[in-house]
Amino acid sequence: MRVLSRVVVKVPTKITIAGEHAVVYGVPAVAAAIPRFILITMSLRSDNRIVVETQGLYARLSRVALDRSSDSVESLASEDDARRALSYVTTALRLCEEFLGVGERGYDVYIESDLPASIGLGTSAAISVGTIAGCLKLRGGDPEEYRVRVAELGWRTELEVQGAASPMDTFTTALGGIRYIDPGAGSVDRIATWIAPAKPIPLVVGYTPRRGTTAELVAKVRRLRSSAPQLFDRVMEVIGDIANAIRRAIEVGDLELLGRLVTVNHGLLEALGVVDREHSLIIHSLLEAGALGAKTSGAGSGGAFLAIAPSADKAGEIAIVAKGLGATVVATGIYPRGFSVEGQRPRPRPRSSLS
Amino acid sequence: MRVLSRVVVKVPTKITIAGEHAVVYGVPAVAAAIPRFILITMSLRSDNRIVVETQGLYARLSRVALDRSSDSVESLASEDDARRALSYVTTALRLCEEFLGVGERGYDVYIESDLPASIGLGTSAAISVGTIAGCLKLRGGDPEEYRVRVAELGWRTELEVQGAASPMDTFTTALGGIRYIDPGAGSVDRIATWIAPAKPIPLVVGYTPRRGTTAELVAKVRRLRSSAPQLFDRVMEVIGDIANAIRRAIEVGDLELLGRLVTVNHGLLEALGVVDREHSLIIHSLLEAGALGAKTSGAGSGGAFLAIAPSADKAGEIAIVAKGLGATVVATGIYPRGFSVEGQRPRPRPRSSLS
């Protein structure tokens, strides 16, 4: 295989259809890739530096470099922010090199995304997966042939950077389509199973600004668990049941049932206390506007939400209502594929690197 | 015992703390009497007519009479409305007479209430219980000595008029305090158990106008049951678990846990699809205003709601927020007793009866 000097990786983001929070406690979840992408352009450098440029992703950060020999960071933003942004990229590159058994190199990594981070659409997973895929391609591997391995390395990237991570985001953005994630499955290959949808799902995906952090919300859920452990376990089991029922509804193409189940899952997120007032208003309004179901998606307190529409036309109307309520709509459908890698890039090259 | 010519029965209304909808499917529920009363003034007539005057309860109906001999209704409102209003009173009177083994008589029944019907505060149960109690007193019984029997006859009244009814409302308004209702209990005496609260509960009870009927909401819940029966059963079990956990939280005086559990129950009502947008906004706002927990109470789509406050002072603030959002606040505490019966009435007699 030809080793390329520059690659462009296009990675879909994702929406959680069922099981956020509960997947942390080992029950199954359902997620889908959506046609809103993160583009990562990568090339090898002649020195040992990792230079990351971002556009539109982190408002405060546009350019940061890590010297791998001295472990020193140059950044226009604060060093903490820089290290956080860099951490996914540098960890992914190291795991890629270790996997291939090749030596340390320098890289230019240019990340384009118009989605904010931490809203539940899997942007950090997409960056991890995309960096792994781009590195494999640059260093002589074939990432599209070994998608599950890319997903696994992306997951390990998130695990190392965050300390804890569900495989949901990395597997869904790497493999695409609608995915059933079973954290209790014995093998990595079986963690994310493709769900064969009996018919297209008119899905509306949007978001509002996040209030608070994912860590705060996970801690809030943990407090509920410690104050009522048995009840909490039952609620987790019910959320797992919903994920399983949603899988079956998608497989048989029962959109109405899918909608109902999605709304039931939303109620359980309300029960966990992670839905904010603005989302509550939006979810109820989308249901009044004709959605078959709607829910908060992701960690909560703002961030992503989704609605199931009875038809593609109706999805357009529901999207208009969501925008009217101040939300940003990012997708009205599911993306059937995972990441893709191109050896050539049709656009102008990113700005020249540091130094 | 002296047979009185006129009695006044004061019946508290009630709020469901946990388990509405689920109690229909046999799981336990918790309810409390609240210090907002229905007054029923009753006297025997010399003829065989039941004359019901209402003040403030049914906007369209102020006065209606049933001739028990001819079964004909005279009313200022439509006959259907009249029969519905009369039906609780006439059924209760018949059950009272049958229970005592006494003959049919005519009655004047004057009902005062400033609460609308069908908002989940148990007004029809209070009318049933109050009519039973007043009839027993007028016909020589001792209703306050046999409260459980009054509750049971009130429940039978609701069963006959509505076709189906949980014992929750009639037992709670008859017996007072905080009640644990177990529809699966073997004996009537054990259906409603008094919960000994370890400390006073600063409770805020309010309501918004109802949209749709209880029957429509019960049917909506039944549709969810038929589309996902196993999941539905699990949700019902979880609601039963919440009711049991709430009972324990009240018994040990853990207000914070009580609040959390109440909010979890609200989430499950959202899951059942019976919470409307206005309630959702109010519940979230009361939580932001410092409530330890808040929930829709009763059948849903508007109607009653409650919040648990950390203190009596804070309950006042939360009530102000609820009013600011357009709700009517009806109580800020729990009423420890059930109905009471007086032989004399301190106020002027109601207007003279028909004909």
What's the topology here?
The structure is a homodimer of 355-residue chains.
Chain A: E1 6-18, E2 29-45, E3 49-55, E4 63-67, E5 72-75, H1 79-100, E6 106-112, H2 123-138, H3 147-162, H4 168-175, E7 178-181, H5 188-191, E8 192-194, E9 203-208, H6 214-227, H7 229-252, H8 255-272, H9 277-288, E10 293-296, E11 303-308, H10 312-324, E12 328-331, E13 340-342
Parallel strand pairs in A: 3-6
Antiparallel strand pairs in A: 1-2, 1-13, 2-6, 2-7, 3-4, 4-5, 7-8, 9-11, 9-12, 10-11
Helix pairs in contact in A: 1-2, 1-3, 2-3, 2-4, 3-4, 6-7, 7-8
Distance between the termini of chain A: 32 Å
**CATH topology value of the largest domain in chain A:** Ribosomal Protein S5, domain 2
The profile of the biggest β sheet of chain A is: 9 strands, mixed
Query: Would you list the SSEs of chain A in sequence order as H and E?
Result: EEEEEHEHHHEHEEHHHHEEHEE
- Helix content percent band of chain A: 40-55%
What is the overall silhouette of chain A? Answer: globular
Q: Give the uncertain stretches of chain A in residue-range form.
A: none
Please state the structural category of chain A: alpha+beta
Biggest interface, CB < 8 A: A-B, 34 and 34 residues
Rg of chain A is 20 Å
- Output mean pLDDT of chain A: 91
What count of domains describes the coordinates of chain A?
A: 2
CATH architecture of the largest domain in chain A: 2-Layer Sandwich
Number of helices of chain A: 10
Q: How much of the sequence of chain A is in beta strands?
A: 15-25%
The CATH class label of the largest domain in chain A is: Alpha Beta
